[in-house]
Amino acid sequence: MSERFPGLNDKEVTTVLKAHGFAVASQKGSQKGSHQKWRYTDGRQVIVPFLGSKPIPIGTLKSIVKGSGLDEEHFC
User: Fold this and answer.
1) Average pLDDT of each block of 10 consecutive residues along the chain (76 residues)?
2) Among residues 3, 6, 32, 68, which one has the fewest Cβ atoms lying within 10 Å of its Cβ?
């Protein structure tokens, strides 16, 4: 991932996942600080934290990109 990788929030990440065939498998937590598990039909899954308007931390975002199996360009 490049240093210029944009800070994305939960809505932006879930929009990319949904556009590439992922669907919500489950959700844990309350409205504040909740997490959703997104799964693809071949078994790939990622956990997306919902942090409101805050950007997802870069390490967490890298984990989401890696777990999704998508190229990082899809998230730019």
Assistant:
1) 73 96 86 83 95 89 95 89
2) 3
Integer Cα distance of 48 and 17 in angstroms = 10
> 14 is in which domain, residue-wise?
10-75
Domain count, the chain: 1
Task: Tell me how far the alpha carbon of residue 27 is from its chain's centroid.
Answer: 13
The CATH code of the domain that includes 29 is 3.30.920.30
pTM listed for this prediction: 0.85
The H or E element that residue 65 is part of is helix 58-68
Report if residue 27 sits inside a domain.
yes
